[in-house]
Design brief:
It comes from Chryseobacterium pyrolae. There is one protein chain. This protein has a single domain, classed as P-loop containing nucleotide triphosphate hydrolases (Rossmann fold), CATH 3.40.50.300. The protein has a seven-stranded mixed beta sheet with strand order 3-4-2-5-1-6-7, with helices on both faces. Helices cover 40% and strands 14% of the residues. Helix 1 crosses helix 10. 43% of the residues are buried. The chain is built from ten helices and seven strands. With 253 residues, it is of the alpha/beta class.
Length: 253
């Protein structure tokens, strides 16, 4: 099982939406997919229409409560979801608290996607840090405003420091633009500048265009690729997921 954290240090950049739709594409390709809501806002659980109060949740998973029960979603019920917990606390957790239970089920799935909270990694142990230390890879959806791009630089530096100092093994595969208005000057300039920058290798060539249907899909509790397979947003997420799989394949060589 390849575990991927969808992580940013800023909210509102389609982190949860991307988790739902990338998992949908992977399932469409025939992979067995697990999705974990590791954000106490529980937006992923809401997006998948999973009752976080009655379903088996991430707190029980962290505490190794057996048997593990998944909420089944997807066109053929082929996406397994572990819901979030609103009052989940890091007080009793350690850096490897998620890694250990994931190890027990690593043969049951091909991919695990973790929807992380939009909070910076700092001196206090947070859910984002716990998630990335349980992961093989990290990717980030980003906006193309100056604030977000500045935060991206900080994130890359932080991950590099964790790799050097704390032996973080997760590979940062890069970042992709979401909610894109591709004909605007701001997007074209941001894309060009990053394409020519020192971190150009981390920029996904694929991006996800802004589309009203994405809100409909989230409100319905399903990924766009299942609800409307040939919508622009579905096609964008397919291209993005194909590029993600290629990056993983290259890294594995």
């Amino acid at each position: 099982m390849k575990t991927i954290s969808i992580f940013t240090q800023k909210g509102g950049v389609t982190k949860t939406t991307s988790t739902i739709n990338i998992s949908g594409v992977l399932a469409e390709l025939g992979y067995k997919v697990l999705v974990i809501d590791f954000d106490t806002q529980c937006h992923l659980s809401l997006g998948y229409d999973v009752d976080k109060e009655t379903e088996y949740n991430v707190e029980e998973f962290l505490n190794s409560v057996e048997p593990i029960r998944y909420a089944e979603r997807g066109k053929h019920q082929n996406v397994s979801v572990i819901s979030g917990k609103l009052k989940l606390s890091t007080k009793s957790l350690k850096r490897d608290s998620l890694k250990k239970p994931l190890k027990k089920i690593e043969k049951d799935f091909d991919f695990c996607l973790i929807d992380c909270p939009p909070k910076p990694i700092n001196d206090d142990l947070g859910f984002g840090e716990i998630a990335i230390f349980a992961s093989d890879y990290i990717i980030s959806p980003v906006d193309y405003d100056a604030f977000t791009l500045d935060g991206l630089t900080t994130l890359i530096i932080t991950l590099d420091e964790l790799q050097q100092r704390e032996k973080l093994t997760a590979q940062y595969l890069g970042f992709f633009f979401a909610k894109v208005e591709e004909n605007t000057k701001d997007f074209k300039e941001a894309y060009r500048e990053l394409s020519e920058s020192e971190i150009s290798s981390l920029l996904f060539k694929s991006y996800v265009r802004k589309n009203a249907f994405i809100r409909t899909s989230i409100n319905t509790g399903e990924s766009a690729v299942f609800l409307k397979p040939f919508s622009p947003v579905s096609m964008d997420y397919r291209k993005l997921t194909d590029e993600l799989l290629m990056k993983i394949k290259i890294d594995a060589k």
